[in-house]
Amino acid sequence: MSKPCSTSTSHPLTDVPAVSVEHFRAPAPEDLSQPVHSVHPPRILLLYGSLRERSFSRLLVEEAARLLQAMGAEAKVFNPTGLPLPDDAPDSHPKVQELRSLAQWSEGMVWCSPERHGAMTGIMKTQIDWIPLYSGAVRPTQGKTLAVMQVSGGSQSFNAVNQMRVLGRWMRMLTIPNQSSVAKAFQEFGSDNRMKPSSYYDRVVDVMEELVKFTWLTRDLSPYLVDRYSERKESAEKLSERVNLPKAT
């Protein structure tokens, strides 16, 4: 029978000799206290995954942006028209620079994609792929909040939102528990392109409300929440050299 773990803190690193004492920090509740809180509106970037003239993912994002603004947030919607495929244009492309600037500005994001062939669309993935995983030694998306939504032409599905959750985790974002999946989206928007009252609409309100709450809760604590032992142990210079691999010629 294995020996139970000790709860004593007098010699906390005795049983973990592989740990670097210099870089080890035990999480402390007092470090989660912020005497001064940011007072500016939460900054939310919204991305959608279709270029159709009447794109239901865009209409849903626009509805979400209105809700966010009504809740006191600042919302900006990125138009992916003209965004090149990853590696098919330099980082200096104007649409790439626009997207990256908005990603840097934001404190939270909303990703909304149609489901196509059981997955998110290529337009949606292209936008996410252009957001860099690193900027020097830091992932610019880490610690930002994320809400995921999808629209479907048929019955309700969760394939796209599940995929986007995986990507959000990979981007080190704080993906909120709630999500929205709107089935038969063509029935949920009127001729004025506004979403009709329904249980689907109520869920969108829920998701935006939760996103604003989580953004308020975590944005000032983000540097602490994403501070990691392994990254403290490895110098920023060495980490930058390791992740910034030379481009293939």
How would you describe this structure to a colleague?
Strands 1, 2, 3, 4, 5 and 6 form a 6-stranded parallel beta sheet that branches. The chain is α/β, with parallel strands linked by helices. The model is unreliable at 1-10 (pLDDT under 50). The termini are far apart. The protein has 8 helices and 6 strands. β4 (145-151), α4 (159-170) and β5 (174-175) form a beta-alpha-beta unit.
Characteristics:
249 residues, alpha/beta, 6-stranded parallel sheet, 34% helix
Tell me briefly what this model is.
This protein is α/β, with parallel strands linked by helices and 249 residues long. The chain contains eight helices and six strands; from the N terminus they run E-H-E-H-E-H-E-H-E-E-H-H-H-H.
Task: Summarize the SSE layout with pairings.
Elements: E1 43-48, H1 56-70, E2 74-77, H2 94-105, E3 108-114, H3 122-130, E4 145-151, H4 159-170, E5 174-175, E6 180-182, H5 199-218, H6 222-225, H7 229-233, H8 236-243
Parallel strand pairs: 1-2, 1-3, 3-4, 4-5, 4-6
As a percent range, the share of strand residues is: 5-15%
Q: End-to-end distance, in Å?
A: 57 Å
Which spans have pLDDT < 50 for at least 5 consecutive residues? 1-10
| Tertiary shape | globular
Rg value? 21 Å
